[in-house]
Design brief:
mainly alpha, 9 helices
Amino acid sequence: MGPQPWSVGESMSIGWEAVKTHFVTLVFTYLVAAVPGFAINQIAGQITKGYQDPSDPLAVLQEPGFWAITWGFTIPTMIIAAFFQGGLIKVWISAARGQTPNFGDLFSGGRSFLPILLYTFVTQLIFVFSLPLLFIPAIIWAMGMSLAEFYMVDEGIGFMDAISKSWKATRGHKLMIFVFALASIGVMLVGLCACCLGVFVAYPIIFVGTAVIYVRLSGNAMGAGGGGMMPPMGGGAGPGGGAGPGGFGPTQPAGGFGAPPGYGPPGGYGPPGGYGPPPGYGGPGPGY
């Protein structure tokens, strides 16, 4: 099956319907994946407090000890995130296809662990060193690479093949993916307003929506095992002509935009994955 049409509103709508239908699995898989990185970053933040000078907030950046601790804690969190990211993406893709996501899939990221870890390191480096000077090219690159991790997990392919497939699949769609990223920021802000706990609902909505984009643009409506198929466009009411009751409701984050929790360096726990700038899996700090 070739690439299928998609829309921002429809993808978000399917993400919302999926979270309502599979609330426990989608919310708690993300929560379980996020806790280790969050805890490690909190510990690192407490340790690095000794290097901070309230009268000169930037002075800490000149302290070698601060950077040693920062990266000493960042690398383990990136490794943990890369493992869970593969499992999370599998869960999100299942939901996007109209299947029942399996909580146990959270721990099934071993096959795609190394490609995702490499992708995470490369993405971090690109955004840390290029974003300040090459903002627009960095965004274009991020949008083009936003489906790479989904290919790694769903097709079991390596880093370079996933990069190539993501770039090809997003050709002509990067602007709309960027609009989806901006809409994701709005969803996140709504989640933050709900006593910050709403982010644990917002993230699954965004990333299932991203998985929808992947399923549509890749043409992989069915998984490797056949099992289920994403509801077709135009079946019933709902934003973007989604399918009515029986699939998710309206037919349908990914990196999508990627995914997969992206823990930034200490002091800034970042959401899953990191697509560079909004919503971006990108450099250190919060950054989907």
